[in-house]
Amino acid sequence: MTQQRGSGFVALLTAVNCFFAFPSAAAMDIPLEVEQLPTITAQSPGAVIALPSEESFAVMCEAKGNPEPEFRWTKNGQEFDPSLDPLLRKEENSGTFVIPNNGNLTEYQGTYRCFAFNKLGTAVSQEIGFMVPKIPKFPKEGFDPFEVEEGQPFILKCDPPKGIPPLQIYWMTMYLQHIEQDDRVSMGLNGDLYFSHVEEKDSRRDYCCFAAFPKIRTIVQKSAMSVVVTTRKSESPDGANSILQRKPSLLTPPGVRSEAVLVKGEDLRLECIAEGIPTPKVEWEKMGHGRPEKFRLENHGKVLVVPGDEQDVGGKYLCKAKNPLGEVVHYFTVTVEEPPEFLVEPQSQLSMIGADVVIKCSVSGSPQPITTWSVNGVPLQETLSANRKIFDDTIIIQNGQPSDSAVYQCEASNKHGKILTNANIMIMNLYPIILTSDGQEYSAVEDQGVMMHCKVFSSPPSTIFWSKDDSSELVTGPRFTVHDNGSLEIHTIEKGDTGQYTCLAKNLEGTSAVDAMLYVKDPTKIVAPPQDQSILIGTDAQLSCLVEFDESFRGDFELLWQKDDEEISPNNTEHSRYFLEEGVLHIVNVSHRDQGEYRCVARTPVDSDVASARLIVLDVPDAPQSVVLSERKNRSVKLRWIPGEDHNSSITEFVIEFEENKWQPGSWRDLQRVPGNHNSAVLDLHGHVGYRFRVYAVNAVGAGPPSKPTERYLTPPAAPDKNPENIKIEGHLPHEMDINWEPLSPIEHNGPGLEYKVSYRRQDVEDEWKEHTVKRHSFVVRNTPTFVPYEIKIQAKNHQGWGPEPKMVTGYSGEDFPSAAPDDVAVEVMNSSVVKVTWKQVPKDKLHGHLGGYRVNWWRMRSLLHSKQSQGERHTAAFPGSRSHGTVSGLVPFSEYSLIVMSFNGRGNGPGSKAVNFKTPEGVPEKIPVFRVADVQKRSISLAWTPPLEPNGILTGYLLEYQLINDTEEAGPLQTVNISKPDTTRWHLRDLEPLSKYRFQLRSCTSTGCGSIVNLESTTLETTSALASTVGLSITSPTSPPSSPKSRVTKPTRSTIGLASVHTGISSQGWFIGLMSAIALLTLVVLIACFVNRNKGGKYSVKEKEDLHPDVESQGINDDTFCEYSDNDEKPLKGSQHSLSGGLKAEDSGDSLVDYGDDDAQFNEDGSFIGEYAAKKEKRASAEIKATAQTPA
């Protein structure tokens, strides 16, 4: 709101040393709230063309002013009132009227002018022409064929009808095919078709001229014309065709000189079309300036385009048409003219009363324009004013008064056009009117600038002052600028700038003021901008943008994303690949078009921040292009290619593949790899092959697609380039030598008829080479000495010749079994389960082959707890290489063993050494197999168990530990009971807590130490039960197979014990007693049967003798099981009946490496074998059967 200020504040302003000096005139910018002259704001263009297709035509005239202007029109200089014509539609509050297309438009054709007036004056519009075009037509006429003698010049006239420009002319056939134009045939500026000389091919019946008028959207066609070219006959006797050459002459323009006018702003076209044989060439020149290089030539050089916007284009020009017989010249005099143009255009002015007003209208043009002045649309000479003076192009109003306010018109015209302008001259005095609203609020951020507006209108102009928070001090300083339009600009905003600001405007007529409020906000800042990324095509990309901004803008804050300066619209469609989530832009299934620069724009109403990142899409390279062969030779060719796009990952290599059509047609194989910075390679080829090649590129992402294959390239046959490789000499039998080699691949044959020449001789004696030619890739030399060295060569040949000289390799003939056993076998006991075996190596002459290593066979003879011998499972361990010791592990403690040592080679095992017996010391016992609750009472529990299956020594007793647990986090103290009698298998614990849960742990012990713990839990009863003696849980189920040393532990619960106490007295039932008796009897029968079977297999003297002296002839060794060890659980126990163990094949050797093969064999650092053995199974199975047969105490 505008308000008057007190006298104190006015006095303060008066004291300021920047008093305003009022100018006599100021630029016109009057708000509509102030009374003012009319101003025309819009009008129709200079010409309104009434096209037949339009429904109506608006003749527009809009104006503003206060009071609101009224309108009147003139037509062709006469008053015209549209409201009097019922067919015209007048726009309300406007000067515009609409002419309907009712078919009778001719009466409205003419030149219109609009006058907008109010009580202060009148504004005048430019002239508006309303044109009703007639449809141009060619006259209907028929044409006789034009006969023209061959070689003569000819002009086909077009004579287009008159119409609204521009006019465009085309020469075409009846089928709308353009007539071909060149140096000889071309169209002139007037539309005629010129022939420098006609030829026989110019004969046709359908030369058509088309005239197009784009403004009225009309094309008309002239009737087709026929041209017949007659052949010129020579006067020579043979009557041959003869066309005489002639020098040039001009078809247009006529004469030697002509004049042309260039209107400034419009291009001028000068034309020279000549005739002659040969066809003349046209050259252009500006006299005194040489060839006009900057000017444009058209129509095959026959038209010179003089630009209308260049300087100094007037003057003399010449065109020169010439051929070898002569030349012709035409001169043009070009005069430059221009339509009227304001040099100084009259300006609207606002002046205070008493000031002089100067109105200047200066015009240029050629011819010199005629300038006329009008006041409020009335010629100046028809109005009188005592204080108005006219000086040439200037009007001066002296001591201007409000009554001198008027609209002055300056109009200038010549033959090229007419211009008019209005100048509103307002003379008035007015106190300041502040147009900016009072109480406006501005927001700005720290360190930026803000502009607070104070738009003022007054006459004379006002002085503007700004203050803050009703302070008497003005806002001044280097950070503050008051602009001429009254706005206050604050540079580099600070927090303390927040507050209320006052704008005060003052002139001689009074003062006015408005208030504005400034709020300083926290700046918007991107604290975590998006980062440049390189991402694989087809994956998902994420660009994050974390922003901090002033909390007051939460409802107005925007986070936008742009890609390459175009805004992205995330989540806009169901199938959009972009979506925005908590400031993160997700791009789904990235493709090549997603590559580019992404910009995050964080915006509030007062500021913004921008951060950008580049997304690079990685992909495999595109296929190479233009793969061609060059430098073709018999055995090589050069391959060139153009690399494809690498998709932002440099190409590391190119892979050249080939396909041949003889051996593997359709199969592409790698031929050569070249670095990624190469685009060619010389390929070495095999003979007698039809090749095709292709290339693919590889980068860090992967291999790209291959190129298109080349044409097929056939190489001639040639001798082999190489001989066989990987020659193997083996001896499967003592008196034979098998020679095998890797054959040449089919493509390496280089031609038909491939064969191999095998040459061999003994190395250790002087011997002649023996040669054999074979087609296969193996050869057997028979009747050789055992294991002697040979020299062997293999050479390839085909029909074209021999391959290169072969390399010589050395091999040995067939091996035989070693004939001697190792001596001085000794055993050193390391601990209860590991021994070290040493021996003396077999002499080389007794090996009869390549030494494979040494094999140790051992077996358990008996446990030291018993005097009875029972040979156990045989075990073996192989120690490869030439060595004299090895370590055997996995032995059963407190046992007696026997072992032998033998050597082996590729043929098999040698004889075994003398058996060496040794004993292992005591160890800790195995885990107790059965541990159960035998009886449960209110305050006591009886426990029962069976001894360990393998005590590994002499039992010294048991260690029993127990504690109260009761399903709580804190357990009771651990109680320990040392049971020193080893034959104890039951223990009764007293003074326990009723209805309490206990955990029991039991271990068996020898003098070496105690074995593994077995656990059991049980709960005492609430009351003593007669059934309690039958309630107990064992870690071994009575029905478990005896071969399972680890059985499932079943824990008792309170519910099972309580249930048992409910059924007291079940043990007295007859059926229960009978059932238990039957179970006991059946168990006894099973035990007797097992005992009998065991005793029957106890003697094994024959088998033991076989083990000590193995049949070496039947011990064939297989390369696949060399140095391997077996402990097969599926083998039967030695000494068992055939019916129980399954059939042991007669040909199976007791120490066969096949039987002992084990893929999991391991060796210690010194090469000794480590394994798990099954020799204890027989003993363990027997013990478990006995344990299961026991009845709970």
UniProtKB/TrEMBL annotation:
One GO MF term, please?
A: cell-cell adhesion mediator activity
Is Ligase a UniProt keyword of this protein?
Answer: no
GO BP terms in the entry: axon guidance; brain development
Location in the cell reads: Cell membrane
Outline the extent of the Ig-like domain: 38-125, 133-226, 248-335, 340-426, 432-519, 523-611
Q: Which UniProt keywords apply?
A: Cell adhesion, Disulfide bond, Immunoglobulin domain, Membrane, Repeat, Signal, Transmembrane, Transmembrane helix
According to the record, the segments passing through the membrane are: 1071-1092
Please state which protein family the record places this protein in.
Belongs to the immunoglobulin superfamily. L1/neurofascin/NgCAM family.
Q: Which InterPro entries did the record assign? A: FN3_dom, FN3_sf, Ig-like_dom, Ig-like_dom_sf, Ig-like_fold, Ig_I-set, Ig_sub, Ig_sub2
**Key word Transmembrane helix present in the record?**
yes
Listed name of the protein: Cell adhesion molecule L1-like b
- Region Disordered, annotated ranges: 1032-1051, 1107-1160
Q: Which residues form the Fibronectin type-III domain?
A: 623-718, 723-816, 821-923, 924-1026
Q: How does it sit in the membrane?
A: Single-pass type I membrane protein
| Signal peptide interval | 1-27
- GO cellular component labels: axon; plasma membrane
Identify the species of origin. Oryzias sinensis
- SUPFAM superfamilies referenced in this protein's UniProt entry, alphabetically: Fibronectin type III (SSF49265), Immunoglobulin (SSF48726)
